[in-house]
Amino acid sequence: MPKSEAVTAPTWAELFRGRNAIFSLALGGSVALHALNIYIAITIMPSVVADIGGLDYYAWSTTVFVVASILGSALSARLLQRVGARGAYGVAALLFGTGTILCALAPNMPVLLAGRFVQGFGGGFLYALAYGVIRLVFADHHWARAIGLISAMWGIATLTGPAIGGIFAELGAWRAAFWSLIPFILVFAILAHATLPGKADSDEKPSRLPLAQLVLLTATVIALSAGSLGEALYWNLIGIGMTLVLAGLLMAVEARSGTRLLPRGALKVTGPLGALYAVIALLVIGMQPEIYVPYLLQVLHGQSPLIAGYLAALMAIGWTLASLFSANLNSRSAPGAITISPVLGLIGLTVLAVFMPVVGSGSWIGLAPVCGSLGLVGASIGLAWPHVVTMVFQRASPDEQAIAAGAITTVQLFATALGAATAGMVANLSGITQPGGVAGASNAALWLFGLFALAPALCIPAARRAARPGMTPR
């Protein structure tokens, strides 16, 4: 019997009592910083390009940030192993702060992109380390709620980030939006240094870096992202072809390498670990049409930019609320939560494919199916998330716990990047720019949500395998 079943009915209060409260504040703060920065940056980017130029590279502000975040998350397990939680968070805060300052001082787009890369590298550490440190500072019966707390930080950032960025954008002070993060970074760094454990004494030698896999992983994302920027079909096909080749090479190198990016068994989707990582990847991919939701709501449903932005946040809010609810479920209910999650996502995306393309008057009655479905897609991830992540910890072999924890974020961000690039490709090919306008947006909405509904559909058998009682921990 896993240790998590040895303690009955742990409560949220235990997570905020004594030293657990300090750990919760530190880990939650790290994720909040990363998430808040994402939503602030998205909000102020129109003001940034209006000031320093670089509209042609608008999308690359997100691309370089995500690529760097993937690298940071992939390296987080090695950093934690080498310097411990205290030192790892110190490095993460230093990188994140340095990148933020570069962005605030940027005189042109190349400098801003450099800052976003450094910022993303530190942000990847901040996010991934939270999962790695959870298993070090909390008893295992608190893991599900600690993971729910991480999801809650994304929900809070979703609500506050656009507001903070919007205020500075309205004031014509986008640089101040980046500067406003610096005091929080300093407070977090001090808190992490004072409360988190240092490097544990161990005879285990630090593992080598999986450099070949990291290069191929980065190249895979860049290939698809670059292909999606072209309006001609052949550029998209070249991008897809290169992505498939590089992804195949990545899997082949990972399977044969003695220095691993993922834990053993992660590439076997029918196995205990592989099924869990497949659930993570497919559920996250299914959420990526959200990048076009604000635009579609404005063009097709007559919403203002502010309202459209907050309606798009319903996905993240659904994720947060469902994750907090699911974290309260006991171990007997966890398999059911995982199994039903992709079904909810499939329903949500199917309803969006039906109702989002229909031009509406903007009435709330007409928007109700769209709003409900956006929340349902987010809830489909949140319902499974605490238990999928906890099961990854439980099923990984003892000597690969750190790698398994870091791989959660690596897989999540990799799926996010590939899904976002694919969404861009689908939208461009289905007419969002040519012919554009209402007709183009309507056709793009149909294809976006219709095709991306395949992700949760494919996830249903993976979720059943992941939740199967026979796949017991370790």
TrEMBL record:
Report which residue ranges the record marks as coiled coil. Answer: none
Q: Where in the cell is it found?
A: Membrane
Q: According to Swiss-Prot or TrEMBL, what is its membrane topology?
A: Multi-pass membrane protein
Q: Which InterPro entries match?
A: MFS, MFS_dom, MFS_trans_sf
Keyword field? Membrane, Transmembrane, Transmembrane helix
Q: Which domain of life is it from?
A: Bacteria
Q: Which parts of the chain span the membrane according to its record?
A: 21-45, 57-75, 87-107, 113-134, 146-164, 176-196, 208-227, 233-253, 265-287, 307-325, 337-358, 364-390, 402-424, 444-463
Pfam families the UniProt entry points to: MFS_1
Where does the protein principally reside?
membrane
Q: Where is the Major facilitator superfamily (MFS) profile domain?
A: 21-468
Which Gene Ontology molecular-function terms are recorded?
A: transmembrane transporter activity
Q: Which Gene3D superfamilies match?
A: MFS general substrate transporter like domains (1.20.1250.20)
Give the record's GO CC terms: plasma membrane
Please give the name of this protein: MFS transporter
Which organism encodes this protein?
Pseudooceanicola pacificus
